[in-house]
Please model this.
Amino acid sequence: MAKNAEQRVTSVPTPPASLIEVDGRASQDPASEYKSASITSSVLDYEFENGRRYHAYKAGSYPLPNDEAELERIDIKHHVIMLLSGGHLHLAPLVSPMKILDIGTGTGIWAIEMADQYPDSLVIGTDLSPVQPKWVPDNVRFEIDDVESRDWTWREDYFDYIHSRFMMASISSWQALLRKAFKHCKPGGYVELQELDPRFVSDDGSLRQDSALCYWSEKICEAAQLYNRPIPVFTEYKAWLEQAGFVDVQQVIFKSPTNSWPKSKLLKEASKFQLLAHIEGLEGVSIGLMTRGLHWKAEEVKVLMARLRPELKNRSIHSYQTIVVLFGRKPDGTDLPASPAAVSGCGFAPLTPEKPFINPSTARPLGINEGERLVDLSL
Model:
């Protein structure tokens, strides 16, 4: 690993200047908040590498593991985004969707909760690994499939809603995937992306460019690029949705703090789980990509992890990662833009070019509308 990491760190986009207030009263030791969840046999014949378990179906196409430690990290990340979004499984203004597709379903936790929320729907979750639970609601079905395969098995105009979440380093071409999603989405239906930009950033300069966090950010993206699974910058998705043909594309940005440095109670709670996901899961996220893409030795990855952990826990570093949630509608022939009332049906006030972001640190309840929390988008 090179000594002059700061010379290679390039500038990456960040959301608007943070209004997240730092909790100056917090102790610098976060120890109290960190505590250490009919298939053919070939699909179950998992591969093992560097002590981690990986999928067997189309082996090697996905660089993250599928073992118990990784499944736990996935469920923790689900909890983080549920906290940040005010408990919403989706932001698209859905009305009684009948057919729902969850791309890269992982543990299936989102698909199962979505099926409970919409009991009259059919929720299909696809993944390369059969790691989902067997006991699920009657309206959930899990399938082993590769969404990047040449043709999807479903007919065109089939789904009312297509969902993708946290597919970091999983997709070789987002443009091609979104074209397929457009083809198989019903007119008037929605596609929603809930994606993580893993690059660590800060708004106040407390994250130094010669830090291990910045070095990891650079190297994980370099490894993914070499592995032909590039990690987009969060600003790229919106144009891709529009190029695929979706209209009324809306975007919401969440800042996910690395640890409990924010003063906001909501962000402090979310960041405790984010820190847990990092400490327990960042090695699993890194080791496959860095050994395969960068041809590092496993020991080199472990050394970098050892450098990362103190910075991850350091509350004087006000770092965060960016989560972007976008949804777009497939035109239904009328081609009318969504009304503000329709957009706010997701539980958030309508987004506009002047107010494209939700800042959880300053979001305040405006009222209760059919059990959904309305959020002030003022920055």
About this structure: Residues 72 and 283 are 13 Å apart (CA to CA). The first strand starts at residue 47 and ends at 49. The chain has a mean pLDDT of 80. Residues 265-293 form the longest helix (29 residues).
